Amino acid sequence: MRIDLRAFVPLFLLSLLLISACSSRTDATEEYTNEPTVATAASDTSVFLVFGHEVEDYAQWREVHTDLDVVREEWGITDAYLMQGAQEDSVVWMMMTAPGETAARGFMVDPNLARIMDTEGVEGEVYRAILESGFTNSFNPADFPNRVIVQHEVRDFDAWKRVFDGHVGSRQRAGLVDLYVSHPVGDSTDVHMMFGVTNEGRLVEYMASAPLRAAMRLSGVVGEPRAYFVRTAE
E-strand spans in 36-145? Predict the structure, then answer.
């Protein structure tokens, strides 16, 4: 589901309904370091491949999905795990590590992948990105079953990142854990983030706060941010 983060109060009345479909873990941030580190990847050229799509029937998709492993192995794609829309089981998300941009793009246009997706009952694409692997915390997907993916444009990535890093404490207090902060290969103005959600009540208050709106203006955010609430797939 795509949500406009600029409409703060009505947005988070809606997002609270989305997140409340999953159980929260209130104190998890106290046990987790929220400092950005370099991802544990196969090489310095490794990239993240993240995409989501709608499926006709999740149970059918899950049954056929193992056929994708053969295609992933051919392109060296590893560390794949699954997520779903927080309220919409028919929206499926995948995050993988590719050994490089060439492998990631080759995998995405592989005719065998298209055939498997057709067999799986994929109906439409929601999200697709090949992201740089930096600015990422190593994490166990099971540690944060509830997450929010945020995407927005910035005028200057380095200037934005300085402001973002300065607000790490505010995010922690709001029940958000930084999981990755990145951008597509070759485009540093398109910022992609994923956060673990540990306290939905604090998150609502934080996203509706004046300091966050001021920080977004100060950091040079442009356009309309998009948020996707997801959870670990069963």
Answer: 47-55, 78-85, 91-98, 122-132
